Amino acid sequence: MSDNASKTAPETVTAAKKLFIKTYGCQMNVYDSQRMAEAMGGEGYVLTEDQAEADMVLLNTCHIREKAAEKLYSDLGRLKPLKADKPDLKIGVAGCVAQAEGEEIVRRMPIVDLVVGPQTYHRLPQMLRGEAPRILTEFPEEDKFDHLPQNRATRRAPAAFLTVQEGCDKFCAFCVVPYTRGAEVSRPVQRILGEARDLVARGVREITLLGQNVNGWHGAGEDGREWGFGRLIRALSEIDGLDRIRYTTSHPNDMADDLIEAHRDVPQLMPYLHLPVQSGSDRILKAMNRKHTAVEYLRLIERIRAARPDIMLTSDFIVGFPGETDQDHADTMRLIEEVGFGTAFSFKYSPRPGTPAYEREEIDSKVADARLQELQALLTRQQKAAQQDMIGRTLGVLFEKPGRIPGQMIGKSDYLHSVFVDTAEVQIGDLAQVRIVESATNSLRGELAA
Ligand code: SAH
Ligand code: SF4
Ligand code: F3S
């Protein structure tokens, strides 16, 4: 050892840099945030829950409704003092607002260092090193998944998301997704099975397959042939240790026979289906470019229920779409009555720049508010009834975390309800049979079945 070296001995342990990510919007963004964190891991960043200690703040944004998009700017406003205190702080904007507004974000908020779209975030490390433009929102030829770390380094948890399909080609008249996420692309079977096996090896027992049109997935199979979504689910069900499979979000027009049959045949496929319908009026469905009628939706539900009688259905509704009359609204209410949903999301129509419906005349805002209230009251009644129906039933529950009260564990039922159980006998990651004894506002209480 040289003299020189021994003199300059103080060990330089470079502390890991801290990354804070805030995620808005759908599950696909939750998944993307995890993948971005993994990509940044290679640059020496570790996640922090505390924004104040972050070296980089990444806001993964949603553009679906005006309110969602505006949140970005109020958050950035709140970040200004932090950046003033800490000039080295990097601020990045990812996700669907990044895609939709690009450079405009930096113009409005110069504190932003990086803007990256949902299909380009694999290049975040390069952007950070100054080896790529600091605004990247084109839809690249390459597939981001080929350029992300292959091994999933997600936090240990028994349930995980897995994106199998990106983008959307449906162009519903109100929706920004085809513009923010780009064209529909299905990931190949091999990649999906590989990622699923990797997750299971890390202790994951439940996987939710994600896509904006997930049931429209069709990909190159391991045999070189084109597979449909039902076949993919069957292949996943053969993975040892993968106990539960879910998927979201689906389009009614892509509920193929082989998928309905999978609901009948594959025990790992949970009896739960989120199938957005948006409206019960044929006139409005047509104006929305949904390409099916209310009766076609109802027939489809009948076929699904025939295949899996105990399935729970959930949906999305938009209230106050341009041109919606009292009769249209009544038609939607009737469809809800007829189906009986376990729960549903409902939104007041929000005009989005760049979509076909944006130019159309809006209906009276107060009328839309009143309709939304009426519709939500009905959906709440249905949700209560569905939860009440669970009392006395014994369901599988996958335990995910301890409850706030010591001695309590919280898990998810087959139907995705949060279930509280007072027990010292289960651990995180256990899948146990639980008898439901009580229904609360948004959860159930149960006891371990003997
Ligand atoms: N791909 C999914 C929907 C993704 S967006 C599907 O086809 O069903 C999630 C939900 O947001 C939609 O189902 C719709 O109910 C709602 N939504 C989308 N655009 C909206 C808008 N402009 N105003 C209000 N709600 C909207
Ligand atoms: Fe949007 Fe329609 Fe595509 Fe769903 S199917 S993401 S609502 S355009
Ligand atoms: Fe929002 Fe983009 Fe998802 S607009 S709902 S984050 S696909």
From TrEMBL:
Instruction: Cite the EC number.
Output: 2.8.4.3
Keywords recorded for this protein, A-Z: 4Fe-4S, Cytoplasm, Iron, Iron-sulfur, Metal-binding, S-adenosyl-L-methionine, Transferase, tRNA processing
- The lineage's top-level taxon is Bacteria
All copies of domain TRAM, residue ranges = 388-450
Q: Which cofactor does it need?
A: [4Fe-4S] cluster
Which SUPFAM superfamilies does the entry mention?
Radical SAM enzymes
Query: Is tRNA processing one of the keywords UniProt gives this record?
Result: yes
Q: Where does [4Fe-4S] cluster 2 bind?
A: C168, C172, C175
State the reactions this protein catalyses: N(6)-dimethylallyladenosine(37) in tRNA + (sulfur carrier)-SH + AH2 + 2 S-adenosyl-L-methionine = 2-methylsulfanyl-N(6)-dimethylallyladenosine(37) in tRNA + (sulfur carrier)-H + 5'-deoxyadenosine + L-methionine + A + S-adenosyl-L-homocysteine + 2 H(+); N(6)-dimethylallyladenosine(37) in tRNA + (sulfur carrier)-SH + AH2 + S-adenosyl-L-methionine = 2-thio-N(6)-dimethylallyladenosine(37) in tRNA + (sulfur carrier)-H + 5'-deoxyadenosine + L-methionine + A + H(+); 2-thio-N(6)-dimethylallyladenosine(37) in tRNA + S-adenosyl-L-methionine = 2-methylsulfanyl-N(6)-dimethylallyladenosine(37) in tRNA + S-adenosyl-L-homocysteine + H(+)
Recorded GO CC terms? cytosol
Q: Which Gene3D superfamilies match?
A: Methylthiotransferase, N-terminal domain, tm_1862 like domain
* Example GO molecular function: metal ion binding
Q: Where in the cell is it found?
A: Cytoplasm
Cofactor details (free text): Binds 2 [4Fe-4S] clusters. One cluster is coordinated with 3 cysteines and an exchangeable S-adenosyl-L-methionine.
List, for all copies, the residue spans of the domain called Radical SAM core: 154-389
Q: Where does [4Fe-4S] cluster 1 bind?
A: C26, C62, C96
Q: Which residues cross the membrane?
A: none
Chief location of this protein within or outside the cell: cytoplasm
Which segments constitute the MTTase N-terminal domain?
Answer: 17-133
Report the protein's function: Catalyzes the methylthiolation of N6-(dimethylallyl)adenosine (i(6)A), leading to the formation of 2-methylthio-N6-(dimethylallyl)adenosine (ms(2)i(6)A) at position 37 in tRNAs that read codons beginning with uridine.
Family to which the UniProt record says this protein belongs: Belongs to the methylthiotransferase family. MiaB subfamily.
Q: How does it assemble?
A: Monomer.
Xref: HAMAP family: tRNA_metthiotr_MiaB (MF_01864)
- List the PANTHER family: CDK5 REGULATORY SUBUNIT-ASSOCIATED PROTEIN 1, MITOCHONDRIAL TRNA METHYLTHIOTRANSFERASE CDK5RAP1
Name used for this protein in its record: tRNA-2-methylthio-N(6)-dimethylallyladenosine synthase
Q: Which organism does this record belong to?
A: Paracoccus onubensis
